[in-house]
Specification:
This protein has 14 helices and 17 strands. By secondary structure, it is an alpha/beta fold. The longest helix has 20 residues.
């Protein structure tokens, strides 16, 4: 009998024992090829010598110092390197312990910025349906997944949600990708006018939507229009790169590929690569200066922010990601993974869409390719696929509710950046078999 409160009360999980490169190995000696990084976390695999060494060195030097009393060299060095490689205008890093914390910090900073600048009526957030921004109450309120929100809706702050940029489902016949992107981006303008521009403080979005919709990238031009709308109304643009950032799409920040820079950006997951729980909220000089020149104090904080061991691990990870070799490898491996999925599943009668960027790929499953009709949610197809894949020694990240929180199934893939060409072929083959068996059952 376990005393552990598992995510699922009916869980009967294998016990992870060791890690070796792209593999996790349980206490029975079974190896699992990690094709999802847990949740797009383990970007450097499970046995990176440099990162483990950095953590040991920091432990020997200093395990903890509270940021109310001290800074640390690891935190200072990480901030300097992150800001150096960040989008234009980003000037400061606020460390946290994970993605939900990063989004909470971003929302609170946005509110305090407008208080400090004499705009107290700005308090509303606009986000997108089928987004996911974390599980704390503020982050959950910003998210647009109705299934996740429903039990806690009475506890949340009010948030408006506009359409996602989801071309596979929503682009009209004869509509170019660019025209579609402008059409859905302009929903932000309509919602701002409905609420009153003087009440809106921020728009938050994932550049590539992760767990909730399955690696959905925006079409060309979408985020440039979003950036323009935010600028015209004095609204902050918060980009949530917790899952899609830190090299996952082939560039350090996913927004680089959209040709824009945010006012605030949140990162986590790949920043620590699983070696330590860590995240960060980065903001522009304009926002930081408003706090510095106003109250001089960001009214936020947690005990473990800036934890020296977490900072040391993240610094070692980021050093690898910015070495000039790793990210080009992600882009090349991502193309290879896309080709392997197309070869194995591109003509599958129940695969509607294969999408994504870099080593961040999604496969949307449909009952009928012609009509894009989803499978009956009662089938729990995504759960069957996960169980089959685990049985065959493959970790993937299937989810349900792709379309509206209830209907639709997809599989998310986010393998480590060190994945080999042979392992990419294995991922496609094993996943195809797991999908076929799940549909046939």
């Amino acid at each position: 009998m376990s005393a552990l409160f598992h995510r699922s009360c009916t869980a009967n999980l294998p016990v992870a024992d060791t890690g070796d490169g792209c593999y996790l190995i349980d206490t029975d000696g079974k190896k699992y090829l990690d094709a999802c990084g847990g949740a797009a976390v383990s970007c450097l695999g499970h046995s990176d010598v440099a990162v483990r060494g950095a953590i040991r060195d920091q432990l020997d030097r200093l395990p903890f110092a509270h940021t109310g009393f001290f800074t640390s060299q690891a935190a200072e060095s990480l901030a300097e390197l992150l800001v150096h490689h960040a989008p234009d205008g980003i000037a400061r890093m606020y460390p946290v312990s994970g993605g939900s914390e990063a989004v909470e910090a971003a929302i609170k900073l946005a509110r305090q910025y407008f208080l400090e600048t004499g705009q107290p009526t700005r308090h509303r957030i606009i986000a997108r349906r089928q987004s996911y921004h974390g599980n704390t109450l503020g982050a959950l309120a910003a998210g647009g997944n109705m299934w996740r929100r429903a039990p806690f809706s009475d506890l949340m702050v009010e948030t408006s949600h506009i359409s996602p940029c989801y071309a596979y489902r929503d682009r009209q016949d004869g509509e170019t990708p660019e025209a579609y992107g402008l059409r859905v981006a302009d929903e932000l303008e309509v919602e701002i006018q409905r609420l009153g521009p003087e009440t809106v403080m921020a728009f938050i979005a994932e550049p590539v939507v992760g767990a909730t919709a399955g690696a959905v990238p925006a079409v060309p031009g979408y985020f440039r229009r979003i950036r323009d709308i935010c600028d015209r109304h004095g609204i902050l643009l918060i980009l949530d790169e917790v899952m899609c950032g830190m090299g996952r799409t082939g560039t350090l920040f996913a927004s680089e590929q959209d040709g824009i820079a945010p006012d605030i950006v949140t990162i986590a997951k790949g920043l620590g690569a699983g070696y330590q729980p860590v995240g960060a909220m980065l903001c522009s000089a304009r926002i930081y200066d408003a706090i510095r020149d106003g109250s001089g104090f960001f009214q936020h904080g947690h005990t473990y922010i800036g934890h020296p061991m977490a900072m040391a691990a993240a610094l070692a990870v980021l050093t690898r990601l910015t070495d000039g070799q790793t990210l080009p490898r992600v882009a090349r491996a991502g193309d290879l993974l896309h080709s392997a999925l197309q070869d194995r599943l591109g003509q599958h009668p129940h695969v509607g869409d294969i999408r994504g960027r870099g080593l961040f790929r999604g496969i949307e499953l449909v009952a009928d390719r012609a009509t894009k009709e989803p499978f009956d949610p009662a089938l729990n197809l995504h759960k069957r696929i996960k169980a089959n894949a685990m049985q065959d020694g493959l970790m993937c990240y299937p989810m349900g509710g792709t379309i509206d929180g209830q209907h639709g199934d997809h599989v998310l893939l986010a393998p480590p950046f060190i994945v080999t060409d042979d392992q990419i072929g294995q991922i496609a083959d094993i996943l195809a078999g797991a999908i076929d068996r799940a549909i046939a059952d």
